[in-house]
Write a structure and sequence with these properties.
Blueprint (H helix, E strand, L loop, with lengths): L15 H6 L1 E6 L5 E6 L4 E3 L15 E3 L16 H16 L10 H20 L15 H5 L10 H16 L18 H4 L18 H38 L4 H14 L5 H21 L5 H4 L7 E5 L6 E9 L5 E7 L1 H13 L1 H17 L5 H17 L5 E3 L7 E3 L5 H10 L14 H14 L6 H7 L7 H4 L11 H23 L10 H12 L3 H9 L5 E2 L4 E2 L25 E2 L5 H15 L6 H21 L6
Antiparallel strand pairs: 1-2, 3-4, 5-6, 6-7, 8-9, 10-11, 11-12
Length: 642
């Protein structure tokens, strides 16, 4: 990383000629030397050396100043030289000399701020305003413009507030720039209020939609079938084609013969031809993505960071259980290694994906060797392009989510997020339908919240998975854990907080069902009876239920709800293995939803008692558990105990 080599002197101190040659992006060469990638005076600022995220496209790593303006010119045309200089000064100042109270902007933030500046600049030019200082007294006129897209349609309030914040930053940076906004754009308002955003309330609620239970279940079912049953045929066909094509290429045959060889080999493997096989390979890659993300909850950028040998076996913190770790990189708050505990099905998907993209990694290794051989003999311009490609090759050469670009000469790189297109084709092909009967449309961001939803609502959600995934015994330790890490890999506290929110909602649902009815329960929790009586006479039942639910920690055992384990009370969690311990426990709640479990326990003990070879000790234990099960079922029926 070469950020420390960039000149951080206030931009106001530079003359225009000095600024033009100032480096804004520097790459590290293979021999340890440095190469300037972009200068202040360039039409495009390319920040690829600082943005290793595999899921980020090349265009998202660049800030292109040559965009069109309403007067028919580009910002980079001579007619707008002054406005271009003011814009570059402002954006660079956010990195070199940040707004007071704000941390130094990352290159991703600089790019996004540059994009957010575009509608403002276009509006200014349409009014003949050629300097930021000319905005004084007219900034409120921009508010309705900021609310609309280029097609004059309303946009999300969060985007509106981000656009308006640009004007506030222009004001805050006024002493650091030659051209800035001298007065606050809206002295008695804020970007958030003008955008219609609530500073607490709705802004704290999750915006990402869940994948519905039915769709999520079907996605997992189909993806698992692809990984476990369809993959052997697909992988064998692809490997057979590689062998056959290599033989033809070695013999000197041309493209026509090579294409025919691919089709003949694909048909011999049971496919209609190479096109169908390639489509099946894409479906398989999408299936691997679904399995890995649905069972880990990691972000798209983190998923794209996984490489060969990313699955590492380990043991739970108490050493009692064998587990699997998925290793990758987290980019959210700085680049660092991260690991997530995953079930065996994720390893299956990783193994399939490793075989699927192995040929592409071989090609990348060869390309790296070729670039290193050519780079020292290249011209200055060629060298710059080779350095940029070498950076991409070295970042991607061991990654798993690889694909060949349709353009750019078929360059190999980490596959961008399987967007709506990939998922739609997957859903269409496998007939995974939404409530409206159409192929479901899912987005990569939805997997993370869906994982949080199912983890929070899992009957056993607070046991081994959560403990090792986050370094917690219980997800209710969020606040106490917010500023620390489980180990050298740190914890995914954002995901943990998402799960906590989902659990709070679920907890309120469960308690609402118990407190707002007189349905018989199977244990004698006195406090629950008192709460029921209070709710029955409360003026606002919903608020009181929510208040009561917020005072406890509800954990599932599978045969009861427990309010004691997370706080170190009651049996300390032993009831997970000894169901009868919950029956007369004041910290347990056995409701009607647990009836099938206790009926199963009852039948199980009856079958055990019918065995001829059961000794006196086993018989006594079975009879004891049977009595508890029958006690629970009688209580759930509202009947008096026997």
């Amino acid at each position: 990383m070469t950020l420390h080599l960039l000149d951080l002197r206030p931009i106001k101190e530079f003359s225009l000629s000095d600024k033009k040659s100032m480096a804004v992006s520097i790459a590290l060469m293979p021999d340890g030397s440095t190469q300037i990638v972009s200068r202040y005076g360039d039409l495009v600022w390319d920040f690829y050396p600082y943005l290793p995220q595999e899921s980020m496209s090349t265009s998202r790593k660049r800030l292109d100043w040559g965009f069109a303006l309403p007067d028919g010119h580009l910002l980079t045309d001579p007619e707008h030289a002054g406005l271009l200089e003011s814009s570059k000064d402002f954006i660079w100042s956010l990195f070199a000399n940040p707004v007071e109270g704000h941390k130094r902007s990352s290159m991703v933030t600089l790019i996004s701020k540059g994009w957010l500046l575009i509608p403002l600049l276009r509006w200014m030019v349409s009014l003949g305003l050629m300097r930021f200082s000319d905005l004084a007294g007219r900034t409120l006129e921009y508010v309705p413009i900021a609310r609309l897209s280029e097609k004059r349609k309303p946009i999300a309030s969060k985007t509106v507030s981000s656009r308006l914040l640009i004007l506030e930053f222009l004001y805050h940076q006024r002493t650091k720039l030659k051209d800035a906004l001298a007065i606050h754009p809206w002295p008695h308002e804020s970007a958030y209020s003008l955008a219609g955003m609530n500073s607490d309330g709705d802004s704290r609620k999750p915006k990402t939609e869940l994948i519905s239970d039915a769709v999520a279940g079907r996605l997992i079912e189909v993806a698992q079938d692809c990984v476990r049953h369809r993959s052997p045929k697909i992988l064998a066909a692809l490997e057979a084609i590689d062998i056959a094509v290599h033989a033809k290429e070695t013999a000197g045959y041309g493209d026509t013969v090579i294409t025919k060889t691919r089709n003949v080999t694909a048909r011999a493997a049971g496919f209609l031809g190479i096109v169908e096989l390639r489509n099946e390979a894409i479906y398989l890659r999408t299936a691997c993505y679904i399995i890995i993300d649905m069972f880990s909850g990691i972000r798209d950028s983190e998923l794209k960071s996984i490489a060969e040998n990313c699955i590492v076996p380990g043991r739970s913190k108490d050493g009692s259980t064998e587990i699997l770790w998925l290793h990758g990189t987290i980019y959210k708050t700085g680049i660092r290694p991260k690991r997530w505990m995953v079930p065996p099905v994720v390893k299956e998907a990783v193994d399939v994906l490793t075989r699927l993209t192995a040929p592409l990694r071989i090609e990348l290794a060869q390309e790296e060797a070729n670039i290193l051989q050519c780079i020292n003999h290249a011209t200055s311009e060629e060298r710059m392009q080779l350095v940029k490609r070498l950076d991409a090759v070295q970042n991607h050469k061991d990654k798993l989510f690889l694909s060949r670009s349709a353009g750019r000469g078929g360059a190999i790189s980490v596959h961008g997020a399987p967007g709506n297109g990939d998922f739609k084709r997957f859903s269409t092909y496998f007939k995974i339908l939404d409530m409206d009967g159409k192929p479901c449309l899912v987005h990569p961001h939805q997997f993370r919240r869906t994982y949080a939803h199912f983890m929070a609502r899992s009957e056993l959600g607070d046991l081994l998975t959560l403990r090792d995934h986050f370094g917690h015994w219980s997800i209710d330790m969020t606040l106490a854990y917010a500023d620390g890490g489980a180990d050298e890999y740190e914890a995914d506290t954002e995901l943990l907080e998402m799960i906590t929110r989902e659990k709070i909602e679920r907890q309120a649902e469960v308690m609402g069902k118990f407190l707002n009815s007189d349905t018989p329960l199977a244990n004698g929790a006195d406090w629950l009876s008192d709460w029921r009586a209070s709710v029955r006479t409360a003026a606002n039942k919903e608020e009181l239920i929510k208040e009561y639910a917020g005072t406890i920690t509800l954990n599932g055992t599978g045969h009861s709800w427990c309010v004691g384990n997370a706080r170190g009370m009651g049996c300390g969690g032993l009831c997970v293995f000894e169901a009868q311990m919950c029956v007369d426990c004041n910290y347990g709640i056995i409701g009607q939803e647990h009836r099938p479990v206790w009926q199963g326990i009852q039948e199980q003990q009856k079958e055990a008692l019918a065995l001829d070879d059961m000794g006196p000790g086993g018989r006594a234990r079975a009879l004891n558990i049977l009595n508890y099960a029958e006690k629970v079922l009688h209580r759930l029926d509202g009947a008096e105990e026997l």
